[in-house]
Amino acid sequence: MTTSIETSFPHVPTATPVLEMRGIGKRFNGVPALQNVNLTIYPGEVHALMGENGAGKSTLMKILAGAYIADEGEIFINGNPVKITDPATARKAGINLIYQELNVAPNLTVAENIFMGSELQRGQLLDRKGMELEAQKVLQSLGASFTPQTVVGSLVVAEQQQVEIARALKDNSRVLVMDEPTAALSDRETELLFEVIRKLKNDGIAIIYISHRMEEIYALADRISVLRDGQYIGSLTRDEISAQRLVQMMVGRSMQDFYEHQRQTNPGPVVLDVRNMSDGRKVEPTSFQLRAGEIVGLAGLVGAGRTEVSRLIFGADRKTSGEVFLNGTKLNINSPSDAITAGIGYVPEDRKDQGLFLEMSSRKNIAINTLKQDAKAGIINWGSVNKLATQAVENFNIRLANLEIRAVNLSGGNQQKLLLARWLAINPRVLMLDEPTRGVDIGAKSEIYRIISELAAQGVAVLMVSSELPEVVGLSDRVLVMREGQLVGELDGSLGKEITQENIMHYATGASEVSAS
After folding, report:
1. Phi and psi at residue 279, to the nearest 5°
2. Does any domain span residue 433?
3. Burial class of residue 163 (count of CB atoms within 10 Å of its CB; 0-12, 13-18, 19+)
4. What pLDDT was estimated at residue 299?
5. Contact at 8 Å (CB) between 432 and 310?
6. What is the pLDDT of residues 361-386, one digit of tens each?
7. H helices of 9-151, where?
8. Which label site among 169, 326, 330, 371 has the fewest CB atoms less than 10 Å from its CB?
9. How many domains is the chain partitioned into structurally?
10. Residue 515 lies inside a defined structural domain of this protein
């Protein structure tokens, strides 16, 4: 499924790969993490390495970077075999890995960071002038806007990444591995990084790019290689890349099976009735209803007011008008605790800042909403807590070594499932999900979709805010669309308005044409 180097990368003068990993195997305590994995990288290409969490991507890259030693297999640089036994030999071979957590000293200058561990000397003294001159050459090649004398702590994250890249280029890097490089970047910073990657590519440096964000893969990748369960599944060239093929390769089933919303929908009575909800600023008076057992998508462009409506219902923000009825009874919600008591749950879009207690154990994160009701005479019932957490880990397939693992140490998908488990512990009548699969891999997405569908099948009314239109279309029984703080349209196939991406965008952008089913 690969194409020749001359066809794919016409600017590269040779078809010799800069890197080949052949038959790589690795075991931990006798358990295979990688089995007979192959990877071929050419000069001047951006090669995306994809696979769900646990597929073996990080293990393979740590072998390449010298953090692990492979049990089987060979590594070749420019056709020549090399033995990579530690990070120093990897760097000497021209391989550098930039981790998601940046490794910079914020109190030192850019030049000092670039030459950290390999400082230039003049006699017994540091050659600061020489380091600054060499650093300036590398920074200029990257198009950096800061100087070698700049203190790194004053730079934004994308610029700190440039410092790490400059350090790699100073070491004459041939292969640069970037692991989830945009995880902490804004949109503008992401574009800045993309500009740097394109410069590196034009200079003939190979980039191995690890990301779960499909839009980044489409924007950057010349080729993609996929791992699943520690095995190499195959590679795709740029013109072969499609969501359908990637899903099939990564999770082992087709796109049609990806959204597990195959049930016959038969919504029950109205559970949540929202009337004239407004904050007087970003949300104009908004009314809608949710029925038992249905999934309602809340769609719209960024800034349309979707998140704000959810937070108003939940009592996280103060409303200027509006009423909320649950099963016909008017609620007095002035805070999230009022909503929780009534049986309304809310999974926020930013799980790290607004959802999880990152430094607390997984067990406490799951049980925190029910600690009070399970307490006896004000004392936490740890037996009940352990039972709840153990059952949640099993039901949600949360991958962790034990219940004391802190939330901060879990993958994005497992963090999100941890948060879902917490809210389901209150047995909600209504569950609001804001970007429920943001920042998780495809395997975790599939599991979260299953959980959402099962909740609806059990009679929970689900309101799902999502910017991913395929997700909205694939899961929703109905779709409400917001634009500029107003609820402007509703799509429901049973009412003659088909739920499609095109129809959602017609409402979201102000176009009037909506296709009938």
Report:
1. -110, 5
2. yes
3. buried
4. 92
5. yes
6. 888 878 777 766 666 666 776 777 77
7. 57-65, 87-92, 110-114, 128-142
8. 330
9. 3
10. no
Taking phi first (over 0 means left), then psi (-120 to 50 degrees means alpha), and beta for anything else, what does residue 70 get? beta
Instruction: Judge if 298 and 355 occupy the same domain.
Output: yes
Residue 165 lies in a domain: no
34-85 per-position pLDDT tens digit: 999 999 999 999 999 988 766 888 899 999 999 999 999 999 999 999 999 9
In a domain, 259, yes or no: no
Range of the domain at 284: 270-509
The one-letter amino acid code at 470 reads: P
To the question of pTM greater than 0.70 for the whole model, the response is: no
| One domain for residues 181 and 325 | no
| Contacts of the segment 469-474: beta carbons below 8 A, 24+ positions apart | 469/299, 469/501, 469/504, 469/505, 470/243, 470/501, 471/259, 471/437, 472/297, 472/299, 472/499, 472/504, 473/297, 473/499, 473/500, 473/501, 473/504, 474/258, 474/259, 474/261, 474/449
CATH number for position 361? 3.40.50.300
Q: Name residue 434's beta-bridge partners.
A: 465
Q: Which residues lie below 8 Å from residue 463, measured CB to CB, with a gap of 6+?
A: 272, 290, 296, 298, 310, 430, 431, 432, 433
Same domain, 425 and 398: yes
